[in-house]
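Researcher: First entry.
Model:
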Amino acid sequence: MLLFSLYNTPRLSYIIDFISKEILNEPIIITTDKQVFIQYELPKLNYSSEEFSEQEFFIKNTSLLFETGIKEQHIECFELNYYKVFFETSGDFPFDIFAASFYLLSRYEEYLPHEEDEYGRYAHTNSLAYKEGFLQVPLINIWLQDFKKALLQKFPALIFRRSSFKFLPTYDIDIAYSFLHKGWKRNMGGLFKSMVSGQWSLFNERMQVLMKKRKDPFDSYEWLDSLHLYCRTRAYYFFLVAGEQKKYDRNISPDKKALQNLIRYHGGGYTVGIHPSWQSGDDEGLLKQELGWLEEILDKDVTYSRQHYIRLRLPTTYRALIKAGIEKDFSMGYGGSNGFRASAASSFFWYDLEKEISTKLMLFPFCFMDATSFYEQKFTPQQTLHELMNYYHAIKKVNGLMVTIWHNHFLGIDPQFAGWREVYEVFLRDEVYWDM
C-alpha cells in the first residue's frame, strides 16, 4: 500500500509503521511525489488536504503529525460506533486516526504541564482517557478494526495481517520473603513491634517461619511453577536488587545468597528482568549498578525492565533505560488505576517526543496490577476477578496483547491477601489457558 503526504515527518513515519505492522502483512510506503501516487494502481492512501480521485482512500490530515515541538492541543471527543474518537476530519474516515493514535501512543499529554500523584508520577486523572471515560478499553486497537473495515469497503481484495490474542503473565519480586533472609536486626525489630502492638499471632507466625516449622507466607514460587506448567505459559519475573533497603525499596539485599539463588532459579526457566529501585529513579549510576548486579548473578545480559512502583517519567526514565542497554520495558501503565495508559493492547516502540525520533525501546503495556486493585481501587478478590475478565474479553475481541502484573506476596498464604491466589488460578486455568 502506498500513502501520499505532502511531507514525510518522523511522527508520520512512526505512526504509519506502527499501524502497518498491526494490520498489514507488508509495510505502508510513504511518498511525497504526487504524480507517482496518482499513477499507482494498487490500494493507496491519500493523507493530505486535497482529494485526487475515487480510486484512493482519502483522509484529510490534521496538523499534529506535521508540527514540531510540544504544545497544548485542542481536543474535542465525539462518539463513533459507540467509542470515543477525536481530531475530526473529512474524507473516507471521519477522524484523523493517524494523528489521534500518535497522540495517545507517544503519551503527548505527559510532556505538558501536569499535576503529579503522591508518588511523584503522572496521575491517571490527568489523562484524556480518564476524563473521557475510555481508560478501560484498548481504544487504538478498536479504531484499527474499524479502519480495516473501511479500507475493505474501498479495496475488497486487500489482505490483512492475521493476529491472535496473546497473554503475558509477569511478576514483580520486590518483597521476596515476608520473614526469611532479612537478617536478625529486621526480624528482631518485627518481633518487638508485634509484641508491643499485641499482635501475638503475627509474632508466632514469624517465629515458626524462622524456625522452619512453617512456610514463609510470601513464598509462592513453587505454586506458580505448577500453574505455569499446567498452563504451558511463558512468564516474566522482574527482581528488585536495591543495595540499600530504604523508603519503597524493601527487598532483601542482593548480597544474600537466598535472593541470588532465587534469581538464578528463575533465570533458568523464565525471562528475568530488572526492577529498578525507587532510588535509581534519581540516579542513573545506581540503575547501571543494579543492572550490573543482576547480570552478574545471572551470568548473562539483562535487557528487560519494569519500574518499581511504576516510577515512570517521560522522557528521562526511558532515556536512562536505553542508555543502560534495556531493550524491552513493561512499565507502560498506571500505578493509581488499572487500564490502558497508552490506549493500546499492543507492543510498540517508544517515540521520544522531545527529540522527535523513534527509538528501539519496545514497550509492553500492562492493563492490570494486583496492588492497584487492592490498595488504590479497594477491590475485593471477587471484584478483581470481574475486572480481569472485563480486560480479558476486551483484549480478546481485538486479538490484542494482555499483560498483567502480580506480586509473589499476593499469591502466597498471607491472610491479608486471602482469596487473591484463587482469583489468579481461576483466571489463568479456566479462561486464558484455553486461548494460549
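Researcher: Second entry.
Model:
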Amino acid sequence: MPRSWIMLLASLLVIASPLPAAADPVLTVESNTDRAGLDYQNFELSSARPDLCLAACAKDARCQAYTYVKPAVQGAKARCWLKQGKPTTSANSCCVSGVKTAKTVVSSASGKDRPGSDYSSFNLPSASPDLCLAACAKQASCKAWTYVKPGVQGASARCWLKNNVPAETASTCCTSGTKQNSLEQARSYAITKWDGNCSGSQRDWWDDMCMAWRHRMGAKGWDQWWNNFSLVQNPKFADPQEETWGADNGSSGWDRGEAALICTHGGHGAATGWSGSMHTDVGHGCKINTNQILAGPASGGHLRFLHLSSCNSMNWDELDKWWMPAGGRVHLVTGFHGFMYIGGRYVDEYEDLANDGFSSGVGNNWIHKMHHVDHWYNAWETVCPIVIGFGETAAAATNAVNEKYNDRWADQAPVWRHVVWWSKCDPDGAGQLPE
C-alpha cells in the first residue's frame, strides 16, 4: 500500500497558512510592500498612480508580479518594475506591489466600445484608459471593460465594468478590452536514440510515452510544446540562478510551462542527486542534475508540476536533494526510485495520468498509475514511483498531492515536504523502500 511522511525544512520557520486556494483578482494590490528581484522591465510613470503599474503588468503575458515605487525614491517620478517571477515580499513604505493570480492578460483596444453587460461605472481621476483596465483586473467579476473619454458622458472620463463580454463596435469615444486566458502549457522532452555527442541506450517508445501525456493535456485545453532528440540540451533545464548558462525560463526551457515531463536516462549520486542524460552537449556537459535545477515562479518560471520519467529520478537516499529545486516554489515533483521501464504497454498510463489529473490529484495518480509489481505486463519487473509535495505548512504539503492540473493553487515556499511511496517496493537499480 502507498505510504507517506512529512518533513520540515529545519532552516525555515513554519508560518500558519490556509491550504492553497486560487485567488479571485487577476492582480493583487499589496500596500507598503516591495518585491525585489526578477525584473525584466522598468520605466517612469506619467503620474504617481500604482494602478498604472498594475495595468502594465495586466497587459503583459510575461509579467507575473509588479512593484510601483513612489516619486523621489528612484528619481523625481514614480517608477514601475515588471517581474518575470514572484519575488518574496518585504515591508517597505516606498512601494506598492502585487502578483498575478492566474495566467491572464487584460487586453486594450482604442477606438472600440463594448456596450452592455455593465455592473459598475464610475468617474476616473484622470483621463487614462489604463485606470479602467486596472479596475477590471482587480475585480473577479469583471470580464470586460470600456473607458469613455472626457466630455462624452460628463466632464470626467468614465469607466464601465462588465460581467460578460459584449460585442465590440467601432467608436471614437472609447477604449475597451477583455480578460483573456493565456493557456496553461504542458511541455515534454524525450530522447529515443542517442545519435549526438552524448551517449545512451536506444529506447524507441519513450517519445510515445511523453507524447501521450502531452497530447491528452492538449485535449484538456492546455497548450502543447515539446523538444525531442537533439534538442534536449542541459541549458533548458538549468536555472540561471544556479548556472550562468542556465536558460530554463527561456523560450525552450521546461520552467516556461506550468507542467513538464522529461523522458530520458537517469542516474543518481550523493553529491548531485538525480542526473538526467542529455542528447547533445552544447558546452556544459551531457547531464543535468538537481543541483542545477530551480523550478517555479519564485525563480522566474511557471512550473507547478514537474514529472521525471527517468530511472532513479527520486532515489530514496537522495530525496533531500529536491529541497533546493523546490525553492522556486514548484508544487509537486514526481519520479522513480530505482529503474523504470519503457515500452508500448506504458503509453496508456501516461495518457491516463494526464486525463485523470484533471479530475483527481496529480500526485495520487502518479503513485497509482506508475506502480507495477512482478507480472507479465511489466516483464516481471517492479516499478516504484515516488511523489513529493511542498508547502508552507504540513497540511499544505500533504494536500499538494491532491492538486489537479487546473486547480492553480497558490505558490508556496517549500517549508514542509510530503513524500508518498509504495511500502516495501523493491525495484531493480535501488534498494527496497521502507514500510
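Model: Note on the second entry: Helices lie at 50-58, 129-137, 206-219, 347-356, 362-369, 394-399.
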